[in-house]
Design a protein that fits this description.
- The protein has two domains: 1-82, no CATH class; 129-342, 3-Layer(aba) Sandwich (Rossmann fold).
- It has helices at residues 21-29, 85-90, 164-180, 196-205, 223-237, 256-264, 317-323, 333-336, 373-383; strands at residues 56-57, 71-72, 129-134, 137-139, 147-148, 153-154, 160-162, 183-190, 209-213, 241-245, 268-272, 274-278, 281-288, 291-298, 301-305, 328-331.
- Helix content is 23%, strand content 19%.
- The chain is globular and about 80 Å long.
- It has a seven-stranded parallel β-sheet, with helices on both faces.
- The protein starts with 20 loop residues before the first helix and ends with a helix.
- By secondary structure, the chain is of the alpha/beta class.
Length: 387
């Protein structure tokens, strides 16, 4: 004789010995699932078990149905396992959208209904914003700059330093991270391995990690080849925002950021003196000869900041010591998928024909004004046939 539906217990019962999760799972899987709980059952009901009397049971939907095979009841001590409050708090609440009957095509949300929000918390972490700062290591301004006559390139064997304009870009990235609450700042550069040392200043300021593309095949790269290499490295990182300084102090080109933005197919805002981020968009303010331009661009984007945008912070002693333990990655052209004929002199579109120092000045004549200074200057100009 089959038991009445009212005799069915609509709650899952676990043995008291099933303390571990594996034991609980085994006990739960030993109980058959025949269908949804009957009307009036608690919402937590998922399984139906009979009293520990050895009777056979079936679910409410199958009770009395023809061809139904009853299952033997499982005799288990009555120890109810409840879900901890901490687990219940982590489970996102599901909100069902309701459509208004008789409304416009497509339906609208009914009055009083709630719009579901994205789940938050450690079970559903939000993606951190990633900011990449492209920097360059240049010869120290206090050192004598020398041209290598063999390669017609700048001799970089002396003391190197982080480009002063790029320090403003690093500072702005740190300020954007502080405003966003959470973001990753990656410093990226192209150069020899010895460039890692001056790049650590960015880590000491607060950047999270360094990426240096160092390869002998990249030596002698012009604007085209350099933008190709940096573009490949940035595609590997896939940042939301790419920051540049306004120019490099050793070349004063101020066009690399435009070439990189073109390769990445991202909007570019240059010479930015004030930068804000709101609702996934960037707003840059820059000064022109006629006033100020305010330009807005969606993310991802490329921005070149001017030296007037901020006052860079000084690295603290704690930051300098902590910079040594932060990630510092060195990549080759092969890691980026850049062929040898696409970098260096082979991948460049320009050729340096001549490069040298400016001609030396002639002898300097000092004229003291004792009341006849104007006559002496006139006489000097006439002798030089300048008049």
């Amino acid at each position: 004789m089959q038991p009445a539906v009212a005799e069915l217990v609509q709650n899952l019962i676990f043995p008291a010995s099933a303390a571990r999760a594996s034991a609980r799972l085994g006990a739960r899987m030993s109980i058959p699932w025949c269908g949804p709980p009957g009307l009036g059952a608690p919402k937590s009901s998922m399984y139906s078990t009979g009293p520990s009397t050895g009777k056979t049971i079936v679910c409410g939907g199958c009770a009395g149905a023809a061809g139904t095979r009853p299952y033997p009841a499982v005799a288990l001590p009555a120890t109810r396992v409840t879900r901890p409050a901490s687990v219940r708090a982590r489970v996102p609440r599901v909100v069902v959208r309701k459509r208004v009957t008789g409304g416009p095509k497509g339906g609208t949300l009914a009055e009083g209904s709630q719009v579901p929000r994205p789940a938050t918390g450690h079970l559903y972490p939000r993606r951190r914003m990633k900011i990449a700062v492209c920097v360059k290591c240049v010869p120290d301004s206090s050192a004598h700059t020398r041209i290598d006559p063999a390669t017609k390139r700048l001799d970089r064997s002396g003391e190197a330093a982080l480009n002063a304009f790029d320090v403003n870009a690093v500072e702005e990235a740190l300020r954007l991270r502080e405003a966003a609450g959470e973001a990753e700042v990656v410093v990226l550069s192209l150069g020899p391995e010895r460039a890692l040392e001056p790049m650590r200043k960015a880590l000491a300021m607060g950047a999270d990690r360094l990426v240096l593309v160092s390869d002998e095949g990249a030596a002698g790269s012009d604007l085209v080849a350099t933008s190709r290499i940096l573009g490949a490295a940035l595609e590997r990182e896939s940042p939301d925002l790419v920051l540049f300084g306004q120019q490099a102090s050793d070349a004063d080109g101020a066009v690399l950021q435009a070439a990189v933005a073109d390769r990445l197919q991202r909007p570019l805002i240059s010479q930015v003196a004030e930068l804000t981020r709101e609702d996934g968009k960037l707003r840059g303010k820059r000064q022109t000869e006629y006033g100020y331009d305010v330009i807005e661009a969606p993310l991802p984007a490329v921005v070149a900041v001017s030296d007037a945008i901020n006052e860079p912070r000084y690295p603290s002693l704690k930051g300098i010591m902590g910079a040594k333990s932060k990630p510092q990655e060195t990549l080759s052209l092969g890691d980026l998928g850049v062929a040898a004929d696409e970098a260096g002199e082979a991948g460049s579109r320009t050729t340096v024909l001549a490069l040298g120092e400016p001609p030396a000045r002639g002898d300097t004549v000092k004229i003291e004004d004792d009341g006849s200074g104007a006559d002496k200057i006139l006489k000097f100009l006439l002798e030089k046939k300048a008049l």
